[in-house]
């Protein structure tokens, strides 16, 4: 791969004279030489971030890896940018995101002195962005690129806007010549498919369920969202669609396509707002909190969790528990022990009042509660307590939740190994492999990679050797699929 600094300089130097922003021609006064305008906006961001050139270069390289870019910038590249040389188009949002993660607020390419992002990447109509997203996600040739999209750590927390007449005139009017009209049966079809896809997620993993979800959204749901129908039916369709889009984002998050998951979550928020669906709006914010927590952004995780709780309607006990549990985890991530334990007590009290019905999407039960307890204790440094709570989570988890069991066993085994309980960990890893062999899941792959790395340091243990033999067998089978 060519040195990115050389690429940037060469790219800029070959632009038509006077076309590139940050470049001016001085004309006949100095024989037509080009004089660059120093990038003072970038310099101001560097000062705000308290970074030197080396630190920015390293941050951009790290952020680039999240987007699938192998960048090798150093201090000299930043010097070129400060002098007015523009980085490649694909790198500009990476630089902006590196600053956003440092500063804890959104930063755009324009604010960094690189000009506006290319226009026309997405249609401006309300559903155009979602339509493009699902079409790309159902296309195998585009899916890899989508999965490498950047997660924005500084995205503003959305607020729920209460609107009595949210459906605009373009949605409500009956367009001439249109023959498609939706009713409650179409709404029920979307809800039924959402439940089915959630079941496939548990049974086979997100690698199989998400493409199915994207295809159904693109081929069936998108036309229905633009179809005629009564205002009440159209509002119900928006709400049902938001639930499925939220689930699709959840699957993308668990497949480690965090930028894509965040895009789906953002679209789900908009649909939920349009459909006046408070519950899915809150669920989605809670999902965004979990995503931020998984990526290590504790303050952002707490902010999303609090936003979800604040915009909740008069919630029933199960939804209250669902939201309070995530608030507890967020509080633990910022080391607020008192608040974390208070939220856990509220979670337990609310869940104890819930009825027996649990939703297929965004549900919350005692297994989820004990998982939250384990997460809180681990974040606060209580490793043995977190292991005990995770065991309890597994004990009460429904047998059909294979995806959840696989993830919980991966987490539990890693913590047992961390504590030095190697024999207990090998047993748990064995249970993990029982599910992993038949599930297509990137989150499972992540645990499997951690398992293989752990085995190298304990080769002398008999149980570990046996586990290693099974791991090699599973790896061969996975590679052959």
Mean pLDDT: 80
- Report on the biggest sheet: 2 strands, antiparallel
What oligomeric state best describes the polypeptide chains here? single chain
Quantity of strands, as a count: 2
Low-confidence stretches: 1-33, 119-125, 162-179
Helix percentage range: 55-70%
Overview of the structural elements:
By secondary structure, this protein is mainly alpha-helical. Among the domains are: 4-103, no CATH class; 401-481, no CATH class. It has helices at 4-13, 40-49, 53-66, 75-83, 92-103, 128-137, 140-147, 169-172, 184-204, 206-225, 231-254, 258-274, 278-294, 298-310, 317-333, 337-351, 366-379, 383-396, 402-419, 422-436, 442-455, 462-480, and strands spanning 23-25, 34-36. It has a two-stranded antiparallel ribbon. β1 (23-25) and β2 (34-36) form a beta hairpin. The two termini are 31 Å apart. Residues 1-33, 119-125 and 162-179 have low confidence and may be disordered.
């Amino acid at each position: 791969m060519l040195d990115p600094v050389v690429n940037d300089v060469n790219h800029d130097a070959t632009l038509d004279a006077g076309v590139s922003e940050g470049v001016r021609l001085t004309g006949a006064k100095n024989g037509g030489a080009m004089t660059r305008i120093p990038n003072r906006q970038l310099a101001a961001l560097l000062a705000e971030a308290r970074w030197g050139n080396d630190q920015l270069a390293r941050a951009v390289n790290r952020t680039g890896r999240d987007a699938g870019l192998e960048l090798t910038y150093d201090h000299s590249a930043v010097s070129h940018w400060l002098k007015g040389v523009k980085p490649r188009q694909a790198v500009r949002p990476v630089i902006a995101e590196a600053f956003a993660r440092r500063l804890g607020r959104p930063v755009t390419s324009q604010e960094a002195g690189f000009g506006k992002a290319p226009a026309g990447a997405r249609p401006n109509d309300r559903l155009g962005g979602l339509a493009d997203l699902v079409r790309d996600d159902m296309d195998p040739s585009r899916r890899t690129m989508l999965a490498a999209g950047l997660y924005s750590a500084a995205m503003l927390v959305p607020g729920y806007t209460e609107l009595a007449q949210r459906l605009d005139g373009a949605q409500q009017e009956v367009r001439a010549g249109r023959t498609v009209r939706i009713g409650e049966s179409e709404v029920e079809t979307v809800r039924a498919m959402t439940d089915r896809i959630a079941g496939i997620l548990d049974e086979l993993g997100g690698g199989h369920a998400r493409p199915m979800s994207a295809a159904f959204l693109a081929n069936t749901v998108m036309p229905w969202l633009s179809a005629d129908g009564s205002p009440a039916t159209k509002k119900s369709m928006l709400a049902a669609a938001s639930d499925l889009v939220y689930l699709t984002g959840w699957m993308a998050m668990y497949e480690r396509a965090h930028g894509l998951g965040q895009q789906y979550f953002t679209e789900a928020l908009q649909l939920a707002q349009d459909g006046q669906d408070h519950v899915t709006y809150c669920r989605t914010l809670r999902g965004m909190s979990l995503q931020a927590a998984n990526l290590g952004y504790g303050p952002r995780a707490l902010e999303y969790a609090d936003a979800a709780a604040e915009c909740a309607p008069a919630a029933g006990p199960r939804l209250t528990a669902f939201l309070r549990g995530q608030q507890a985890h967020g509080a633990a991530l910022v080391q607020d022990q008192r608040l974390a334990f208070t939220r856990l007590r509220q979670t337990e009290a609310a869940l104890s009042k819930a009825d027996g019905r649990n939703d297929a999407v965004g549900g919350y039960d005692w297994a989820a509660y004990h998982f939250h307890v384990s997460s809180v204790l681990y974040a606060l440094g209580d490793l043995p307590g977190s292991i005990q709570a995770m065991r309890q989570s597994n004990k009460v988890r429904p047998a059909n939740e294979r995806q959840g069991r696989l993830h919980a066993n991966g987490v539990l085994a890693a913590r047992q190994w961390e504590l030095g309980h190697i024999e207990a960990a090998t047993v748990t890893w064995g249970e993990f492999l029982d599910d992993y062999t038949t599930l297509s899941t990137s989150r499972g792959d992540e645990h499997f990679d951690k398992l293989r790395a752990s085995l190298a340091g304990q080769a002398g243990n008999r149980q570990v050797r046996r586990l290693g033999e099974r791991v090699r067998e599973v790896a061969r089978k996975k590679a052959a699929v």
